[in-house]
Amino acid sequence: MKSEANVIQLYSRRVYEDIMTFIGKFESKHTQKNYERSIRNFFLWLHNVNKDIEHLTVDDLKVRNADMLRYQKYLKDHEADYTHITINSHIAPIQSLYEYLETNEYPINSKHTKISMLSDDTEITGSLYLNEAEEMARLFLQDRKLGQEKYALIRTAYTTSFRKSSLLSLKWSDIKKNPLAENYLVTTIGKGNKRHTMPISVDLYNELLKIKGQKYYHKYKDDKIFHLSPNTIQTMMNNIKKKMGILPERNIKFHSLRNVAASFGTIEEAKKHLNHSNISTTERYRKHTAEDYSNSISLRIEDKIDDSILEQLNKEELIHLIMMQNNGTLSQIKREAQELIQIKGEMNN
Questions:
Q1: Is the pTM for the entire model greater than 0.85?
Q2: C-alpha distances out from residue 105 to 100, 134, 205, Å
Q3: pLDDT of residue 152
Q4: Which of 8, 60, 89, 247 is buried deepest, with most CB atoms within 10 A?
């Protein structure tokens, strides 16, 4: 006669095997991995379960509609700053699993997992430009409380394009001197557990070091660089937008700082910088730099302007014209100017 422990173990094994059978029906290994991760995270979160899927029993599968709504809110409030699309992608596998288990005669009701999906917010986060991000950093530096930390956080955010969760997880041990150049390398584990290394300037590194000189900082012993909570960051962003007169319709968020670098370099460079797996995601980030229809190919192809037009401008007018270009173009012009000056210097020597 089987003991109660053996029966529980038998049912536990059956639940796990059926879950893995459900996951295995998808041909894509990527889909299988994502589904398993979403399902594992849900049962680890569920307050009355808190188990790995290997140990689930039939009783553990009982879920209320209220639980699903609470889980959705938990993901919305998560410090990882998930988009609505990401949250939906975490919940959909759970709903599909419950339909599958109900079909296979488990004593559950899959309707309990049905909740309204969040709206597509891929275009919602507003675009922020470099001059605005730099102004934000300068204004935060004037704060009497945590000014240096806020300033360094903003600069690191728009320079590296790291996500908020990655920034708040950064430790001093994650920064190493670049042995091949005069800069520092910062490494973080980003979305999808992808390792991402980004160089930062000596100047920015020195600004980070100044955080250690703040009186309050000595109470921390965790090696972390930043100790601002997600709520504090939300409040400081709300305040700075009012101070700068940024209209609510622009919907600027902390995540907008990640967009700043998208306008620099080629789309392939931006993809690498933003650590995107798919270039179509990068294209969405760059949209705000390509909405000037006056510069469209359909107009430029008919626009015959003689090269001599530039000779009619004086030095001040040419400089003004150059400085009016978008950040990516301006950065490229500066780099090429620097190279020309270096070549001239070498020729004179």
A1: no
A2: 9, 59, 59
A3: 96
A4: 60
How deeply is 247 buried, as exposed, middle or buried, from its count of CB atoms within 10 A (0-12, 13-18, 19+)? exposed
Cα separation, 93 vs 100, in Å, equals 10
Q: Residues 98, 193: one domain?
A: no
Residue 118 forms part of a structural domain: no
* Residue 197 placed within a domain: yes
Distance CA 183, CA 205 (A): 8
200: β partners:
184
What residues form DSSP beta bridges with 188?
196
H/E element holding 6?
Answer: helix 4-24
**Same structural domain for residues 234 and 274?**
yes
Residue 90 domain boundaries = 4-113
Give the SS3 label for residue 50: coil
Name the token pair of 273. 């910088």
The number of angstroms, rounded, from the C-alpha of 177 to the middle of its chain's C-alpha atoms is: 25
Note the pLDDT of residue 263: 65
Please check whether residue 43 lies inside any domain of the structure: yes
Residues 284 and 121: their CA atoms lie apart, in Å, by 12
- Residue 211 shares a structural domain with residue 340: no
Q: Hey, what are 232's tokens?
A: 């504090």
For 310, residues 6+ apart whose C-beta sits below 8 A from its C-beta are 318
- 256-279: pLDDT as tens digits: 888 787 666 565 665 666 565 555
Q: What type of residue sits at position 79?
A: E
76 and 197 share one domain: no
Least Cα distance to 329 among 300, 295, 297 occurs for 295
Helix (H) or strand (E) holding 157: helix 147-160
